[in-house]
Design brief:
The structure is a homooctamer. Chain A is of the alpha/beta class. The first copy, chain A, contains nine helices and eleven strands. In chain A, a hairpin with a 4-residue loop joins strand 5 and strand 6. Chain A is globular and about 50 Å long. Chains in contact: A-B, A-C, A-D, A-E, B-C, B-D, B-G, C-F, C-G, D-E, D-H, E-F, E-H, F-G, F-H, G-H. Chains A, B, C, D, E, F, G, H: It comes from Adhaeretor mobilis.
Chain lengths: ~240, ~240, ~240, ~240, ~240, ~240, ~240, ~240
């Protein structure tokens, strides 16, 4: 996708705040603005970055925000909407389904993987991608996944979220042609090693179409699937650059 | 299974050779005689232990024997038969199928897992168990396993052998009611870590009926499945002890 | 064990709840219904799944339930009985010993391994298996185990629970002919690495009849031993399928 | 991408050879035929699978073939072309650039990463994707990457191959909008841990558009990038399925 | 730098307190007095060591002091100044910039790395080095670092602090000629492994001028850079020993 | 040391309590009675075991007791004396120095290693060994250890306790002829890995006289040194068995 | 044991050779001369060090010498005697049993552990200790160890050598009062991790009298046991220093 | 150190060869030209890079060259001089001692660490630094290091090379005021883990002046020490840039 040179301006690419610097050039370069990683940032800092981005017309997403911090932030910036499962904050409405781009499905193995799957979900909504969810289809019930094949076999990209043995992406991989972004979760105990077992399993997948992101990295899994789906959509529309 | 007290004798339980000691009481105690672990033993030592066991009427199994050592041993003890895939030596004929006990199936994921699967196979033959093989049904081809369900759904116990992501036992686990003994193999590369990835995957299996043995431990997987199947068979016959 | 075809019905195999899906076909396929893994599920979800299973006549087991959550659940579903050592909830009476099937013994090394051993115990009671307990016979006191040999040498299967160096299954393995399901626990400190030391020790056991499950996986150890014992019992009775 | 139902036929999905089974349904399901993983397979097996695929009109790719095995295979099947850097065998001509689909760039950090980068290259040629190479632009020379930005900033997908500290994908990630498939290599020594250092670095990338595959998995990196690029191309052409 | 023999005295090199011993000879031997590592020491012990050092005319630095302990200590020893970001206590004024020695720059990748960067900062102030800070220039925004090149390209030594993939020191390394002391932080999650990912990345840096210290070891990074800068400064002044 | 046959009695070797079994034969077999490992045992259990041991005339030691549990226990069994640094409980007076046996020195590297060193200390007092302490002589101050050489060069055995890089035992090893029992502590951070760094360092010690025990295992280090010293003392007295 | 001041001389403590330095003061300080670690040293260097030690009247031991290097060395220094199992070279006759000191037993678990056990054996002979061997008494045969109890229950110290699960030292520990030096071996495969499994097992031993040395460190295990036994012997003789 | 702007030219910064690209701007930016990392490069490639560098008047250093490759290269480029211990190739004469800059000492622990120490040595000679060697002063002989203190206490920077427990840098750190670059080596066995034990030990050093580089990274240790020493030398001469 060619970078949109028309958007190139003289303005400085970085805005220096007291405690952080904001990459103002990112939308031009990478198609989407900066996402605020909430861990280790104060409510004030997060609200300030969000305001700056918002004032430039960007949609805003902040991840890894616990409930207490979310409450603090929404007092500073009431338009931020919190999703307590995904632990994300967003500014910007969901696109109506007809305007949403492409087709991404987020598949998760068990009930405990839900928070990570929902972080991917929120990320995809923020990107303007069309997204649907298929929950609790882990490999222990072998009929569960095929029963729902119709819901995901035509996707542009899949996000597959699983903890424990992390086998779900390998099994899904055998059913579809699109790229799969596998997200290991830290769900499990003992030799799970905080998600390392699922991570290694996914990296060693015998399915050729499985790429992997960090443990519990729902955002990154969603973002990558969203890039594939929205860029494919844009190219079908004869568009070279994301437009939102 | 009650231990067969009638077999208890006064003879000393251990036979001391120059370089090893043989546990002569094992068949009474554990149902099967000692198996010779070939790694780190000379051809002479292996042949000597085999002769002693044979002279006491035991069936003999030696594992982890490379071709060169097998050739040396068969010159010393010609009745030993070598299986070059399993890298095992045996003395004692295969039982005719009608006399073999129980029903064990060894399932393997890929072509490269064959040597480990065959070590399990040879072990089960040595135990007098009825055994069949289902090869190359890894999860990347989702239709391969269900196509062959009839071959293993009635087994007394399964041995499931897989490298790479080690997902096969979890998937098989959802189809059957019997215990599964999962054997991770060192097949793979990179983040496979010499089989650790498959091992961790199997230990974290969401299927309740999956137990695990060491990496590449085809013998142990086969032995455990053989215990389950032959003891169930013996109890159905009203027999308390293995008879071979 | 052949699957009980008479139980096959037209009903859909999966019941979709708001936050989870229940595998309704599992008893037919695997001999026992789904077990509820409590970690990461709300009290409401657990009670709802339990009610659905109960309404279909299944016995119910939920594991990894802390006291607070157990209290919440029992307000929603008073018939659930909590075991605070095992941290399990059950619905369904213990079978009278005469009706219980087979013979499983759960052996544990030290006082601190008790919670894991009790999770195995509760699981076996839920399966309708006959079960007895041998506590605190770790290898540091070499006479403790032989003193109690009569209690476990005739078992159909053993569950052996140990933390620290995890040597107990290897030592027990030399005394018996039946399969042993070894459960490493996270009891210990320092180079114990949260149970990894015991896990590795058990995987490397020189005893041929030792299979291993995940760290602290009392449920899985109990379930596997229960499968071996109840299926052997059923086959002796000329029964092909579990009946409870 | 909807699966091409018109290609659905009655023929059995699996062809059972003596030592392997071939997934004949894969092209319909996944868009591309099976790839032959050469490790642990004999020359005979590889040639046999290749012949079967070829006889069905599929393009053939085999990976992880050393020179000696390649020589054996080309005596059995002379039309197979060997690439000694990539250690791959292929049957099927390169598409003329005008017919090749999409636009993938393979970027590598150092001279020693070349074999892995070339495995990705060969995979992309086999898929019919348009591909170009940017070599030796590791982060130690900070001007090297920007000098060549024009060669990769418009790609549909990137494969970035790096050993040692594995920083290159993170740096590339800041310049582009497309998905990046990062391939860690085992190049390095000491605390490199056979590629684990680069793998962890890539998994923890602060760039949102970086997904990771296994160490030295040039094939998988190429395959995923090829899926993104060819499917985007096909959708622009109003085509739903790959056509080659 | 020759040790200052004139400072050699007859006094005993070690002062024995109740709960600790103080190395009174360290300034002569190593150029700077002992630094108090606060972890695991009581407020009383810290205050006592600080008083003893102060009474001998040394400047005092204590690291790893949480707020509660800092409050306790400042009641015992009010002249100690606390920096709540760096979690350090100091006694002794900052040198005026003109008197400060050499030129060290502390560069950090993200907002969350700030506490570690500030520990380095406080350490350098305590050493009497001239120090400036460059924050939030991680590799995800590739223009951020070059924009600020003028601020650090003439430094005598750099401290580069980064978590996650730890790529920043490698990138900085390509721009400068001076030694870089890389400090990995435990910022991140999942496969970050508490900073191990960043640590391995830095150890494997392809940049020749990057040395590494322990995870979160802001003190040590600052101390080493301070040694390089102040000793170079002293040698330019014709001074052989530090003078403060 | 020959076992004291005169102490052999007919009494059963194991006392079965509700929640634990006590090894009553241990003093005869091993020279010292059981030590109570407090982790995971309730105050009631610990008090009950202590009472039983006391009623048989044994000296009592319990380790890993936090302050809250210690308070509970001393209400049940007031004669137990708590050491809050070592976190141990003891019953039985310290022997007067003249009656204490042998000569053990416990050397520790830093202030933070004190709790582990004190656990060794309490263990040695309980064994009736003569023991002295040398604190805070870590290798960073190279003159500290030689200054105190006279205090430990004539010991029968040394316990050397160190965290961080764990170098102290290697350095001490070069000065003495007696066996050294090295105890790594979990003191440190980052790449310390909870004491693994010190543990590995000690296992790889180039000093021939260094044996290692588990991380933070002050009890075990003290116990082993106590065995060496008291048995040497007893043999000098012409005594074959411990007498206390 | 007080150091023998009478042996103190004016001679320099270190002899500087071209490629190594010899610690000439070690016998005075540590009771025994330097041992030559053969790995990474040339035959010439080893022969030169051995000659220098011999010319000063010391007994000589060199470890980790393969057969080829041993042949080279014995051409340079024919009095060196090679033990091909232990891979050690020695100069100096075995003491007649009556003159040998103390009583050490080396116990090994399996045939493959023999080389490490023999390295301990050779070391003890070199030290002038009385030593006997108990081979192949691993825990899989539970009667083997008690059968031979009389051979080791009166030892001054034990060396226990085991690979695989490393359980033997824990079991032995329950039978004896003396210190045990446990030597893990790299015998095993898969999750054995080159001896790490046995090492961790031994470090976590529930037996209080078990100290551990490095994997395959037969020399160190033997040396420590030899120190305990010979120093106890010397003290019984009223001797303070070793005399050989 | 300010970069030498007078050397800035218009010439392209990168020279693209067939199989590698050369960073021609590095001397201006970083003070020294590129060093050729020999691993994974052919003799032809190395000779070609060396020729290009030489033709531009640069001094040449290539590391990690085995003897066979060195012979090949010296046929192509006879002026390259090989050091078989360091496994390095150089072009350019050693500077006479009087012209060499600064003062670096390379200290190594044992004979087996020599190759890594010599790689550091060769690197320092190539940089034009004054360098001396102190070999075989490991901590097991505590008098060896102090005996040679005069040789290194006045250095501008030290390189300390050690395998096994890696304690030497910590001990040296207590004697000197200058920065220490610690190089762990893979010398050792078992729990040494290929140098990881020494690496962790050095990272956790309690000495404040110890920075660490990768395992066996003699080049990097030498390079960093050389930067410190030569830049200090240049600044004393009133020179801002390296001149060679």
């Amino acid at each position: 996708m060619p970078r949109d040179e028309s958007k190139k301006t003289d303005q400085k690419a970085t805005l220096q705040l007291a405690s952080a610097s904001i990459d103002l050039d990112r939308t031009r370069r990478c198609g989407f603005p900066e996402v605020i990683y909430g861990e280790g940032k104060t409510a004030e800092t997060i609200a300030q970055i969000a305001s700056e981005l918002r004032s430039r017309g960007e949609r805003v997403l902040a991840t890894r925000i616990d409930l207490a911090k979310a409450n603090e932030i929404s007092q500073l910036l009431p338009e931020m909407m919190y999703d307590s499962t995904a632990r994300t904050l967003r500014i910007g409405d969901d696109l109506p389904d007809a305007q949403a781009k492409g087709n991404v499905v987020v598949i998760s193995a068990g009930t405990s993987d839900l928070p990570v799957a929902e972080e991917a979900h929120q990320t995809l909504l923020w990107m303007g991608a069309r997204v649907s969810m298929v929950h609790d289809v882990g490999v222990a019930g072998p009929h569960r996944l095929p029963e729902r094949l119709a819901e995901f076999e035509n996707a542009d990209a899949l996000v597959v979220v699983a903890g424990m043995e992390g086998a779900l992406p390998s099994v899904v991989g055998g059913y579809v042609a699109c790229p799969i972004f596998a997200v290991p979760t830290s769900v499990g105990y003992g030799a799970n090693l905080g998600g390392i077992a699922a991570l290694l399993s996914m990296l060693n997948s015998c399915a050729s179409n499985v790429a992997v992101v960090n443990i519990d990295a729902g955002f990154k899994g969603g973002y990558l699937a969203g890039l594939v789906a929205t860029q494919k959509h844009d190219s079908m529309q004869g568009q070279d650059a994301p437009a939102h």
